[in-house]
Each structure stands twice: as structure tokens, then as C-alpha cells.
Write a structure and sequence with these properties.
This protein has about 575 residues and is of the alpha+beta class. It is built from 13 helices and 27 strands.
Length: about 575
């Protein structure tokens, strides 16, 4: 399997390093076109560490990159350069050919305190300080000639370049990230390192959902996106964590992680549990979850919707939770639910409100055009599902009073949702909480109560099924998040049109449990075909199927794999 490094970074499980071919713009940042070594630490706010230029006879050489999970090959005129990970912190760069060389430009211009320096008593070893990116590297030459080109200017280098050239037809340079006291010293065996990474990837593939042979190729790409997006525990991350991407969405968000946990649950339950719990590691005393976490920061400005009960239920269908795990899940999920009940029902009407579109995960959906707070039926539905799960957990733990409490609260919220957010014909709508004004929009978010399935009365269930199976939102590629006929529809405006994996998976889960099996299979097939066509994009153009935004997004990969296994096998 090969992939395009202009869209999907070359990295490996556990690493904070990645390589990408930049064509001038990267996540809203501009940089000279070329191949870049990047860091995903600190939410990748300053990601570029060095620009890599293959050389032939000391001069820049045109090259064509070819990437597979274990090796990035640069075929240049008169030189072949291969790049592989020896471990999560160490890259090996091997060049073959009498004139082969490689220049690493550490991009010091305008970046303070960037510098190279030889390490004492270590011939062929150099220290690179990439201060703006908060990264330190050690470069060690195992074979080849190394030279430094650096222009010093008081406290930083105007330019800082390291060049390695073949000696005896070959060079081998190790680039290691320093964390703590140092980096590995070798010696390194390039072929053994590449084989080790290939085995790691293949083992991970076997832990992913198993899909029909028709979708084997996109499934391997999805597995690679997930495997390579894992980072080791570091800083605020207390567990091995699957980032949303190693492009520029280098965080874990507090609903995205649920889809990754579900995909792992059946065949790697320990890693699945870590993905589910990683946000709960930062749960507030009041029970709120943060918006996102990475190694360097915890962001609390917003939160995300309470789909965690739904996700835990699906995980428990696929894995066995020990009694201590059940108790931990119950306690954390109960606190998260109580936070919504105690802090986000500000008018005391029995329904919780979103104070911003970001809290829903549907940042700019048209349901949030009125001034917040906004009361929407998806939030009530998620909380009912979550309270049902809490009741089940409490019963299994012998906490009978707690089980009764959650059953009662779930029923009360269900009744309030149906009375206040559905009309007599079973059609959902929203409310502007401050004024009570009805919100009628053409956003797919209003259909999410289908997750309640048979908890819904017949009129509401039938209406939601008709809305989803009709022509309002359904395109040749899947569910548009804003009806294409809406005057507010945009091909590429986040939640105002594009197809998204999480919405698709939530809706199909509800429809499946409503008995709409043929329709669900058809829509799951469309989504798998969409990934086959356009990769694991953050979202997709609902009219053309083109991939949009970040093109290596893990919840897209996880949702596709889960749905293909669940509905298409």
C-alpha cells in the first residue's frame, strides 16, 4: 500500500515526528514547497523543523516521493534515499549512490534561537535546537560525510543547514528527538528497522475491524491513518493516545475519541479503553470534560456533546469490562451527566442547552444561527441514551437506587424532549432558550434523535426515518449536514453541507436499531466508497465526494472501518 504524503503524513505509532510534502500551504500556514520534517507536539502550532532536499553531487536533485507504512522512498536523479523509523523517537535516513546526499535546512530565518552545534566527543553528531517548535534533535552520522553551513547572528543562526553525503556509496543519518536526558546512540540497522515497523503496522491492522474484501484497500489506508496517529504518553497525555491527525488537527477532542475507541474495542480492548478514558483523565471536579487535550495543553473553552454513554454501550457490545472498569466508567460518566443536568439547564425546563455550536460538535450548523443558548433535541437524545447506560451500569454494580434514579431522569428528559422539541406530526425543531422562539432549520443535526430508536414513539420515529431516507439530506455520497436545497448550504463550510463520519455513524446506528437494514447497508456502502475515492478526509463535499480539510483524520478512518464491519460483512 502506498499513500500520498501531500495528504497523509509519514509517521509511526507513538511518534511525535512526521514528514509531509508541502505544496505551499499547510493547515493555513505558508511555506516553501518541499519535503518537511515536522513535529506534532504543542498542537503543531509551529510544526516545521527542517526542509529536506535530496542532493546529487552536492546539488539539489529533483525527486519523487513514494510512501508506504514502513518506508518513505525518495527517488532522485543519481541517488536513492529511504527514510524509516527505528523507534518512535528516531528517524533513519539512508542514501545510496556515489553522488547521493541530503540537506536538512533547519529554517532558522526569522525563527529565534535556532542553531546547530557539534556534540562534544561525538564525531559526526550534532545538536539541533528548534526553539520555536519546542523541539530538540540529535543528528548522528553512522555512515557518510557530514558538514555544517551556519551563519551566526548574536543569539541565533541566520541559516543552519546540515548536509550528509555518501561515503563509499552510502550514508546513514539518524535524527532523534531528545526528551529528557538524550536520544538513542545506535548502531542502527536500516532494513531491520523498516521490517520492525512493517510488523507493527500489520499487527495493528489485525486489531482493526475486518471489512469485506471489496474495501480492503481503503481499510489498509484507514488502519495506517490510525496507527500512525498514535502518540506516546507525554505531558498532559497520561496514556498512549490517538490524535485526530498528524497533519494539523494534532489534538484529541472530547467526542472524536469515542469513535476511535469503538473501532478498537473488539480486538484491542486495552488500547480502546485508553482512547475512551483519555479525556476523562482531565475531568473537572464538577464533572465537565475539556474540549480537547494534547501533550502541551488542556483546552476548556468549550466542551463536546455527551455521546459517551452511546459510545460505551457500543464498546461493551464488543469487549468485556472488568468490574473495576465498570465502576470507573460509571463514576466518570455519572459526573459528566450531572454536569449537564446541573449546569446546562439554566431555565429549569428539564432540557439542557448548548451555549455555543462548538459544544455540540457541529460548530457552525445553521441551528446555531440564533443567539445562544439553544435547546436542540440531539442533546436531549444523547443524555437519555447516556442515562439509560448509567442505569444499566448501576444495576450491574448492585447500585439499585442509582439505577432507579437514572431510569427516572431518562424518562423525564425523554418526555420533555417530545413535548417541547417535536411537533404533533413528530417533526423535530429547536428553541432559542432566552426567547422561546422556535428554530426551524435545514440542518441534519435535528435528525440525530434517531439514536433513541425504539425509545421514540411511532410518529417521531417514522418522521425521522422519512427525513433521512428521503431526498432532503441524502446525496449520492451520503448525508449532507445541511440540505443541499437550503439557501445556507455551502460545499465546503464545515457543518453547513459537507458529509461527516460521526454524523453518519450515529444516524446509521439508530436506523439499524429501527430495523432499516437495507437502507443502512446502502448508506454504509456509500461511505466506504467515499473513503475509497477520497481518503480519510475530515469531511467531504456532499455533491462531488471530494475530500475536504485535513485529509488524514482518524474518526473518519474508525467510523468507516466500524460501519463496514458491522453492516457490510
Amino acid at each position: 500500500m502506498n499513500f500520498d504524503i501531500t495528504q497523509v503524513p509519514f509517521s509511526c505509532r507513538g511518534s511525535y515526528l512526521a514528514l509531509s510534502q508541502n505544496e505551499g500551504e499547510f493547515g493555513g500556514r505558508t511555506a516553501e514547497p518541499g519535503l518537511y520534517l515536522r513535529t506534532v507536539r504543542g498542537a503543531a502550532k509551529d510544526p516545521f523543523l527542517a526542509r529536506l532536499t535530496p542532493l546529487c553531487g552536492g546539488r539539489p536533485a529533483a525527486f519523487a516521493p513514494q510512501a508506504d507504512p514502513a518506508c518513505l522512498h525518495l527517488a532522485a536523479d543519481g541517488a536513492d534515499i529511504d527514510i524509516a523509523f527505528a523507534d518512535a523517537a528516531t528517524l533513519l535516513l539512508r542514501g545510496r549512490g556515489a553522488a547521493a546526499g541530503l540537506c536538512l535546512d533547519f529554517l532558522s530565518a526569522g525563527r529565534p534561537y535556532t542553531m546547530l552545534e557539534p556534540l562534544p566527543a561525538a564525531e559526526g553528531a550534532y545538536y539541533a535546537s528548534c526553539y520555536v517548535s519546542r523541539t530538540r534533535l540529535v543528528l548522528r552520522s553512522q555512515r557518510g560525510r557530514v558538514c555544517i553551513d551556519q551563519a551566526w547572528n548574536v543569539s541565533s543562526a541566520d541559516h543552519a543547514r546540515l548536509t550528509v553525503e555518501a561515503d563509499g556509496g552510502e550514508f546513514l543519518l539518524a535524527v532523534g528527538e531528545i526528551r529528557g536526558d538524550g536520544a538513542g546512540r545506535g548502531p542502527w540497522d536500516f532494513d531491520a528497522a523498516r521490517a520492525r515497523m512493517q510488523r507493527s503496522f500489520e499487527d495493528f491492522c489485525r486489531a482493526m475491524p475486518q471489512v469485506p474484501a471489496l474495501f480492503a484497500a481503503p481499510a489498509r489506508l484507514a488502519a495506517y491513518v490510525n496507527w500512525s496517529s498514535l502518540v506516546d504518553a507525554s505531558g498532559f497525555l497520561k496514556r498512549e493516545t490517538m490524535y485526530m491527525s498528524k497533519n494539523w488537527m494534532c489534538n484529541v477532542y472530547s467526542w472524536d475519541h469515542c469513535f476511535n475507541a469503538i473501532a478498537l474495542a473488539q480486538r484491542d480492548p486495552a488500547l480502546a479503553w485508553d482512547q475512551f478514558m483519555v479525556l476523562f483523565d482531565h475531568q473537572s471536579a464538577a464533572g465537565r470534560l475539556p474540549d480537547s487535550v494534547n501533550d502541551s495543553e488542556v483546552v476548556d473553552n468549550f466542551c463536546k456533546p455527551p455521546i459517551h454513554g452511546w459510545a460505551l454501550h457500543k464498546m461493551r457490545e464488543r469487549m468485556t469490562l472488568t468490574r473495576p472498569m465498570q465502576a470507573e466508567a460509571y463514576d466518570k460518566l455519572a459526573r459528566w451527566t450531572l454536569w449537564w443536568l446541573n449546569c446546562r439547564d439554566r431555565d429549569g425546563d428539564g432540557l439542557c442547552e448548548y451555549t455555543h455550536g462548538n459544544d455540540s460538535g457541529w460548530d457552525n450548523a445553521t441551528a446555531f444561527a440564533p443567539a445562544p443558548p439553544v435547546t436542540l433535541p440531539d442533546l436531549a437524545a444523547f443524555l437519555v441514551v447516556q442515562m439509560d447506560e448509567l442505569a444499566d451500569l448501576a444495576g450491574g454494580l448492585g447500585r439499585c437506587a442509582a439505577a432507579d434514579f437514572w431510569q427516572q431522569r431518562a424518562q423525564q428528559m425523554l418526555e420533555a424532549m417530545l413535548a417541547k422539541l417535536f411537533d404533533a406530526g413528530g417533526r423535530p425543531f429547536g428553541l432559542q432558550a432566552a426567547t422561546g422562539a422556535r428554530i426551524d432549520c435545514q440542518s441534519l443535526i435535528l435528525c440525530l434523535p434517531i439514536v433513541l430508536a425504539d425509545r421514540l414513539p411511532d410518529p417521531a420515529r417514522r418522521t425521522l426515518i422519512q427525513m433521512l431516507e428521503g431526498e432532503t439530506f441524502r446525496t449520492a455520497y451520503g448525508f449532507a449536514t445541511e440540505a443541499p436545497e437550503s439557501p445556507l448550504y455551502e460545499d465546503d463550510d464545515y457543518w453547513r453541507g459537507p458529509i461527516w463520519a460521526p454524523a453518519t455513524m450515529l444516524l446509521l446506528d439508530g436506523l439499524w436499531r429501527c430495523g432499516e437494514r437495507d437502507f443502512v447497508r446502502d448508506m454504509a456502502r456509500r461511505f466506504a466508497q467515499l473513503v475509497a475515492q477520497s481518503g480519510c478526509a475530515e469531511n467531504f463535499d456532499a455533491r462531488t465526494g471530494a475530500g475536504l480539510r485535513d485529509r488524514a483524520y482518524t474518526w473518519t478512518a474508525s467510523a468507516m472501518l466500524t460501519m463496514a464491519e458491522e453492516y457490510l460483512r
